[in-house]
Amino acid sequence: MTVHQNETTFIEVSDFLLNCFVRSPSWQLWLSVPLSLLFLLAMGANGILLITIWLEASLHEPMYYLLSLLSLLDIVLCLTVIPKVLAIFWFDLKLISFYACFLQMYIMNCFFAMESCTIMVMAYDRYVAICHPLRYQSIITDQFVAKAAIFILVRNVLFTVPVPILSAHLHYCGRTVIENCICANLSVSRLSCDDITINRFYQFAGGWTVLGSDLILIFLSYTFILRAVLRLKAVGAVTKALSTCASHFILILFFSTILLVVVFTHMAKKKVSPDVPVLLNVLHHVIPAALNPIVYGVRTQEIKQGIQRLLKKGW
Predict the structure, then answer these.
(1) E strand map for the chain
(2) Collapsed DSSP state (helix, strand, coil) of residue 173
């Protein structure tokens, strides 16, 4: 259907084409294998973590409920992005419907923000546990986790709703090739013949406000944790705590890749191949998901013991 308005022809778009790595086609070949392995690791590790926490009564505590939430978010993010990317790599299935594209866009933005908020709450949980151990049981309760989950859901669902709505209501003039492996907001919006200043502003200002505030609070929590740990007299305890904090910081660095990509591409512009931010965007949806259950879960003694008990029962 074609509509004439102010001498501009608008075409009703029913499908988009995800055209990723066209400048570096060889990337698809070598990236598909590690990407599929990371996807299997992410799904398997998070699945095992969820099952262990669900079946082990000793793990029915606030800290592990937060871990479960993080694993659930990781699984959804992986399933939203990686299978489609692998389908493009292996079977050249680049076509994605209009509504599926904006659904993917919303889930990516919403669940990414929810994951950021969850990590922030988990950092606060560790801060209370280490800096105020005598008050931990009274502060971090099941009610606290329930309220935190509601806050995480409501804040990020409402905040990210405008992202796909703003993009979906743009007029598209027949250009349907998305230069990306995923339906990223700005990658799709650039195809329209409307002014996308509002889309850009909401994406950058809103993203920096929400994700930036989460990262600041996470950093402050671990700063207080490190200060408390360094006051400990037991050398073994200090080493163990520093090792844990270092692992968490590495994960947070991976998790904040999307912010680094935005800054990196904005500053470099044409000096860097457009395929680089596309690659980082794809990896960002699978690397943290694969590492989170290992660092936050398997390295926790109680989780390891719970998995061992389940394996013994299975045998």
Answers:
(1) 2-5, 8-11, 15-18, 95-97, 177-178
(2) coil
Structural domains present in the chain: 2-314 (1.20.1070.10)
Please state at what angle helix 235-255 crosses helix 98-131, rounded to 10 degrees.
160
Neighbours of 8 (CB within 10 A): 11
CA atoms within 13 A on the CB side of 298: 13
- CA atoms of 145 and 121, how far apart (whole Å): 9
Asked whether the beta carbons of 213 and 253 are under 8 A apart, the reply is no
Token reading at 31:
């990236």
* 242: nearest Cα among 226, 258, 262: 226
Alpha carbon distance 180, 279 (integer Å)? 9
**pTM given for the model:** 0.89
Pairing mode, strands 8-11 and 95-97: unpaired
Nearest one of 81, 41, 72, 36 to 54, comparing CA atoms:
72
pLDDT of the chain, 315 residues: tens digit per residue: 444 444 455 566 789 999 887 666 777 778 899 999 999 999 999 999 999 999 999 899 999 999 999 999 999 999 999 999 999 999 989 999 999 999 999 999 999 999 999 999 999 998 898 888 899 999 999 999 999 999 999 999 999 999 999 999 998 887 899 989 999 998 899 999 899 999 989 988 888 888 889 989 988 988 898 888 878 766 666 676 666 676 677 777 767 766 666 566 655 656 667 777 788 788 888 988 998 888 877 777 888 888 888 888 765
